[in-house]
Amino acid sequence: MTSADELNEQYDADGSVTQVPERNDEVHAGESAATQSRESAVTIPAGTVVLAATPIGNVGDASARLVALLERADIVAAEDTRRLYDLARRLGVYVNGRVIAYHDHNERDKADGLLDQVETGAIVLVVSDAGMPTINDPGLAIVRRAIERGLPVTCAPGPSAVLDALALSGLPTDRFCYEGFLPRKHSERVQYLRTLLPERRTIVFYETPHRIADSMDDLLDAFGPNRPMALCRELTKDYEQIRRGPIGEIRQSVIDDPPRGEMVLVIGGASNEEAEAAAPSTLSVDDMAVLSIDRALEDGLRIKDAIAQVVQEHPLADGSLANRKQVYAAVLKIKG
């Protein structure tokens, strides 16, 4: 097994530095039988992009396919190369291929270069820090470009915080929707949650520790205190915790015992009665006024600029836009 101190440097064609572990031939030879066994279970054709899920907390969840692919791939495109090598070290894996950094800030620029290598027969493995690439992680750009260029893409499935939380929530799993992270700003989050009021499917969100209290307040305002939910934190880790109960109860638990670590929120879908009562409708002038005030305060905008944005974002039922002067009058009325 290679330690972090045994890293040397390899320069990519674009001048970037890739950290590569020194090869320990004695250890490598001793592991050859195990490596051959792992490789025999994996058949990935040459000239393929492979998206592989990595552990979300417990390294023991790494699949045999992931291990074999880390050893066999010609190129490994990793969201964070340091985390990749740490994972490889804990798995006892030697990464034989070239490793490049592939993250949100460069994935579009590097996608075609990687696919050029796929065209020559290379296996390109794409991994994120945790979970499946493309799910709130890099990977979508290379998948889209591969499809456009007619190149094969496959995946090695594995750990998923979304599915783990859904399975552990105790809420219906036959129909669900994944909504990613909730909006950061209060006004946008409130408006977004309102659009989900009639949603009958179980809803899954990601949330961060520093926003969870505010988000729980907004969930309470949007869905009321009795909608069932689960707050799942530190999934698969030693301190895994699932808090189940109505929104009002979970909100109070967040106040009394603020949760730490990465978390997933699972919200029960609307009943037929709730869905019918919350059928989508256009915002009233008063609602637009309230939203405009929130937008102006949070974004540091003039109230007239905030009104212009809100009116543009929320057309009336017939597709026309609300009268800005009426919204401004409603703002003045609210402010007294």
UniProtKB/TrEMBL annotation:
This is Ribosomal RNA small subunit methyltransferase I. It comes from the Bacteria. Signal peptide: none annotated. Its main location: cytoplasm. Coiled coil: none annotated. NCBIfam families: 16S rRNA (cytidine(1402)-2'-O)-methyltransferase (TIGR00096). Residues 1-12 have a biased composition (Acidic residues). The gene is rsmI. It comes from Bifidobacterium longum subsp. longum. PANTHER family: RIBOSOMAL RNA SMALL SUBUNIT METHYLTRANSFERASE I (PTHR46111). It is found in: Cytoplasm. Catalyzes the 2'-O-methylation of the ribose of cytidine 1402 (C1402) in 16S rRNA. Residues 48-250 form the Tetrapyrrole methylase domain. It is an enzyme of class 2 (transferase).
